[in-house]
Design goal:
The complex is a heterodimer of chains A (277) and B (93).
Chain A: E1 3-10, H1 16-23, H2 28-43, E2 47-52, E3 67-70, E4 74-77, E5 88-91, H3 94-106, E6 112-114, H4 121-130, E7 138-143, H5 153-169, E8 175-181, E9 187-188, E10 199-200, H6 204-216, H7 219-225, H8 228-233, H9 241-251, E11 258-262, E12 267-273
Parallel strand pairs in A: 1-8, 2-7, 2-8, 3-6
Antiparallel strand pairs in A: 1-12, 3-7, 4-5, 9-10, 11-12
Helix pairs in contact in A: 3-5, 5-9
Chain B: H1 3-15, H2 17-25, H3 27-31, H4 38-45, H5 49-54, H6 59-67, H7 75-92
Classes of the chains: A alpha/beta (277), B mainly alpha (93).
Chain lengths: 277, 93
C-alpha cells in the first residue's frame, strides 16, 4: 500500500512569488513557506496530492466540474500570468491518480476525468515554494470552491476520506503528502476589496475561528459551521476552505501540530504530520 | 441572456493578448462582433463594471478588466462601482 506521510495547508496568493523575490527569504511570507517546505521535505514524500480550486483557468463556466482528478504524466502552469512565477512542467503520477478516481466513483463521488490540462497560480504558487525543483510528482484534485452552489463541507470531508482510503489501498509503497490550497476569508476583485487593493478580508473573525478549530482539531464544529451562507459572507473565494477540509479528510480529525494565521490575508499555514500507528 | 459571453470576454483579456490590446485601444471595435446584448455592450464600453456585476457577471473574472487597466478603470473606480452596485442590490432585496 501507499503511505500517507502528512498534510500541509497553504495559501496561494498570486503575488507571493514576486513578494518573496522582492522582500527576501526573511520576509514573513518567505519564512512561513520555509517552515512548510522544511516539514514537507522532512516527511519525505515521493508523490504529492493537492486539493485545489481552479480559478476558471483549467475549467470555465461552460464546463465546470464540482470534483475532478488530473490523470496525466505531466501538466503545465501557471496559465494566468501571476508575476514572477515562471511556467513549468510538473510531473504527475497517473496510476495513483486513476486509482483515486476509480475508488472515488465507487464511493459515490462523481469525479470528472481531466487528462490534458494546465493549472493556474492556485497550484503553482504552493509548488513554487514547497517543491521548487518540480521533481516530485503532483496529482491535482480540483474542488469547486468559487462558483455557487459549492459542495457542502461534509461532502468535502467525506471526499477526503475516500481519497485517504484510495491512498491506503494503492499497491506501490509510495509516500504520499497532501496539500490543501486556499484562504479562509478572502474577496478578490469583488465589492468587498480593500481601498487600493485587489483583495479584501471581509470576515477576519471567521478566519480566526477556522484557525482555532484547525489548531484544536475540532473538525466536527468546523464542518458544522462551514455553511454556504458563512462561506459567502467570508468572501467570493472563501470556499477554498473546502480544500483544507478535504485535506483533513485525508489526515483524520486531529489538531494541527503547527498552524499560523496570517491575519491580514485571511489565510493560514498548517501541518498535520502522519502519526505512527 | 449573454452574461456567459461577458464572463468569457473577461477571461479572453487574460488569454488573448491581441484581444487585450484591442480592448485597450478601441473597446467598441473589440466587442463589436461578440454575442452581447445592447445593455451589456454599452456597459462594457463605458466601463460600467457595477452594472455588469448587477447583471450577474462573475466578480473574479470582471477583475481582469481592472487588472489589465482596461476601459479607464482604476482599482479605486472599480471598487466604488462594485460597491455601489452591491449596495443598490441590497436595498432592492
Amino acid at each position: 500500500m501507499a503511505n500517507f506521510v502528512g498534510a500541509f495547508g497553504v495559501p496561494h496568493t498570486p503575488i507571493f512569488a514576486q513578494l518573496v523575490d522582492r522582500e527576501g527569504p526573511e520576509s514573513e511570507t518567505g519564512k512561513l513557506f520555509a517552515v512548510m517546505r522544511r516539514e514537507l521535505v522532512s516527511a519525505g514524500p515521493n508523490v504529492i496530492i493537492i486539493f485545489d480550486t481552479d480559478h476558471l483557468n483549467t475549467f470555465f463556466l461552460d464546463n465546470l466540474p464540482m470534483l475532478a482528478v488530473g490523470v496525466a504524466a505531466t501538466f503545465r502552469g501557471p496559465n494566468d500570468e501571476p508575476p514572477a512565477l515562471p511556467r513549468r512542467v510538473v510531473p504527475s503520477h497517473p496510476a495513483l491518480a486513476d486509482h483515486i478516481r476509480r475508488c472515488g466513483i465507487l464511493d459515490g463521488f462523481d469525479l470528472a476525468l481531466v487528462q490534458e490540462f494546465e493549472v493556474d497560480h492556485s497550484i503553482m504558487i504552493p509548488l513554487h515554494f514547497l517543491t521548487p525543483a518540480m521533481d516530485i510528482p503532483v496529482i491535482p484534485i480540483f474542488l469547486n470552491g468559487h462558483v455557487e452552489p459549492l459542495p457542502p463541507a461534509q461532502r468535502a470531508l467525506a471526499f477526503g476520506r475516500s481519497v485517504r482510503a484510495a491512498i491506503d489501498s494503492f499497491e506501490g509503497g509510495q509516500r504520499v503528502a497532501v496539500i490543501g490550497s486556499g484562504s479562509f476569508s478572502l474577496e478578490v476583485y469583488g465589492p468587498r476589496i480593500a481601498p487600493g487593493m485587489n483583495f479584501g478580508v471581509p470576515d477576519p473573525e471567521w478566519a480566526k475561528k477556522v484557525h482555532a478549530y484547525l489548531r484544536d482539531g475540532d473538525i466536527a464544529a468546523l464542518v458544522a459551521e462551514t455553511s454556504a451562507e458563512r462561506l459567502a459572507s467570508a468572501g467570493n473565494v472563501a470556499g477554498e476552505l473546502l480544500n483544507w477540509i478535504a485535506m483533513i479528510g485525508v489526515a483524520g480529525n486531529r489538531p494541527a501540530t503547527w498552524i499560523c494565521l496570517q491575519e491580514r490575508f485571511g489565510h493560514a499555514y498548517g501541518i498535520w504530520p502522519e502519526v505512527a500507528s | 441572456m449573454s452574461v456567459f459571453a461577458v464572463n468569457y470576454l473577461c477571461r479572453q483579456t487574460l488569454r488573448d493578448h491581441a484581444f487585450r490590446e484591442a480592448m485597450r485601444t478601441n473597446p467598441r471595435a473589440a466587442v463589436a462582433g461578440l454575442p452581447l446584448s445592447e445593455q451589456e455592450r454599452d456597459a462594457l464600453i463605458a466601463g460600467e463594471v457595477g452594472e455588469l456585476y448587477a447583471m450577474g457577471v462573475n466578480s473574479f473574472l470582471l477583475g481582469y478588466l481592472v487588472r489589465f487597466e482596461l476601459l479607464g478603470l482604476t482599482l479605486d473606480s472599480y471598487r466604488e462601482k462594485l460597491l455601489a452596485a452591491s449596495r443598490r442590490n441590497k436595498t432592492k432585496s
